[in-house]
Amino acid sequence: MKGHPRVIGYLQRAVSHEFSAAQQYVLQAAQAESWGMQQLAAELRQGVKEELCHAETFIRRLLALGVTPRAGELRAPGVGRSHEEMLRLGLATEAEAIRLYGEARWFCERIGDEENREVFARILEDEEDHYQELERQLTALGVKLA
């Protein structure tokens, strides 16, 4: 093992988070499709692909550090009983990623681990974009955000 134990912990948690998010979006895509919301189902399926790409990035970092990747426990996915609830669950998932990756990026910066800091920073930016898109979609539904 070549990396700082805390950074490895962040990477392992990130893998679990990304697989949990992908699982949630797969279930939501199927739900949206059952409601006849083909566009939403397609957007959610695109989200699955992005989350799996993020998971693979974190897995590659772990392998580069000589660590066996593990997903740990996946959290129970939220599906939602309405379009709004589905978007809110997605917002919560993205907020969790933003918090985790922001903390990990800060820690990597603090210990001088530039390579992992860059990975967390890049994926953090993607998650922030996802969060903003979900906020936009909620606003388009007429939902007032606090």
From TrEMBL:
- The keyword Ribonucleoprotein appears for this protein: no
Briefly, what is this protein's role?
A: Iron-storage protein, whose ferroxidase center binds Fe(2+), oxidizes it using dioxygen to Fe(3+), and participates in the subsequent Fe(3+) oxide mineral core formation within the central cavity of the BFR protein shell.
Q: Where does Fe cation 1 bind?
A: 18, 51, 54, 127
Q: Locate the residues binding Fe cation 3.
A: 50
List the InterPro entries.
Answer: Bacterioferritin (IPR002024), Ferritin-like (IPR012347), Ferritin-like_diiron (IPR009040), Ferritin-like_SF (IPR009078), Ferritin_DPS_dom (IPR008331)
Give residue ranges for domain Ferritin-like diiron.
Answer: 1-145
What is the main EC category here?
A: oxidoreductase
Please give the catalytic activity noted in the UniProt record.
4 Fe(2+) + O2 + 4 H(+) = 4 Fe(3+) + 2 H2O
Q: Which SUPFAM superfamilies match?
A: Ferritin-like
What's an example of a GO molecular-function annotation for this chain? ferric iron binding
Name of this protein: Bacterioferritin
Q: Which residues form a coiled coil?
A: 117-144
Keywords for this entry?
Coiled coil, Heme, Iron, Iron storage, Metal-binding
For this chain, the family text in UniProt reads: Belongs to the bacterioferritin family.
Q: Tell me its cofactors.
A: heme b
> One Pfam family from the UniProt entry?
Ferritin
Q: Give Gene Ontology CC terms.
A: cytosol
Which biological processes are named by the entry's GO terms? intracellular iron ion homeostasis; iron ion transport
